[in-house]
Amino acid sequence: MADQGDFRAVLQYVPQFRGKVFVVLIEAGLLPEPAIAESLLDLAAMEDVGVKLILGVLGGDLKDLYDWTLECEIMAARLTRPLGDPGAVEEAKAILARGQTVVADASSNDPLDPQVVDFTLGIGAVKLIALLEEAILIDGEPVPAVRAADADELAASNTVTGGHLLKAAAEACRKGVPRVHVLNGRRQGVLIDELFSNEGVGTMIHADSYREIRPLREEDIPELLGMIGRSVRRTKLVARTYEDILAKIGDYHVMAIDDNVVGCVALHEYPPDNTAEVACLYVKLNHEGRGYGVDLVKYAEQMAREKGVPRIFALTTRAADFFENRVGFALSGPDALPEPRRRQLEESGRDSKVFEKVI
Prior knowledge:
Blueprint: H1 4-11, H2 14-17, E1 21-27, H3 34-48, E2 52-58, H4 62-71, E3 76-78, H5 88-97, E4 101-105, H6 114-123, E5 127-132, E6 137-138, E7 145-147, H7 148-155, E8 160-161, H8 163-175, E9 179-184, H9 190-195, E10 203-206, E11 211-215, H10 221-233, H11 242-247, E12 252-257, E13 260-270, E14 275-283, H12 292-306, E15 311-316, H13 320-326, E16 330-331, H14 339-348, E17 353-358
Helix pairs in contact: 7-8
């Protein structure tokens, strides 16, 4: 039985991907592999939820890939022109417009060569995905996300396998392709695990911000409330309503990965006391253990510095070790709190410990 958490993680991407174009290149030598058959079945499912697909075969016979798409019940039509042909983009657009997946011959091209990139840009694809026998590895492991701006330096290091692919992917991003994914085509379930999770299992090269901490937007509030609800019920966090958060929306920031919210933090100022509270710190359960909580606290600290606040504090019932040993706060007491916050704590009846930090 599929894990429910995995199922929910997949569902959050469906609206984001619906109507978008993906170019997927498959190395011909992988076509007999069971993993590719599974990937094609996954592509058929993506087609069903509205993803528009261009499937290209690298170094092999177009008919082989086309036959595989028929076996997997993909609604495919063959492109009569090679990807580098000036008319290929318009022909592909016409096939997509009638609801079919394009099967194209990319056999004369390297995986990420300029003709492939130009076609990807011309068709308006948001992702260029390469299922290859060779992957990009750093110290023997795939890296979930690499900024295009960092790729050339990284490719020059001795720790990288597939450096030429990394450089080519970065160049594609610089030309305008938003995301390039280089994946091990022999890995079972590689497409779903890469595209429908925040962290992925291959190497993604991206031009824009993939993981960021940004101000909370009003449309994020329902998601934030749903996200922190588990901790509110377990008394780890103070209960908040939509109106509570909206009234202080400028205090809240969220961590987003590929624009999916995975964590939050708030910084509530107390100007008369020249201090501020780090509050509403939360990271989604399936993103714990990656240092995101530390990043969020450091971000709040930086905001406090920029506002000229010399001291910050936090209250917690369950995260004393985190504040003391991970982010450098010191155990204090209620007397360190501003009067309004101390009164609020007393009225709440919560057995919270107080931590503070001079910044």
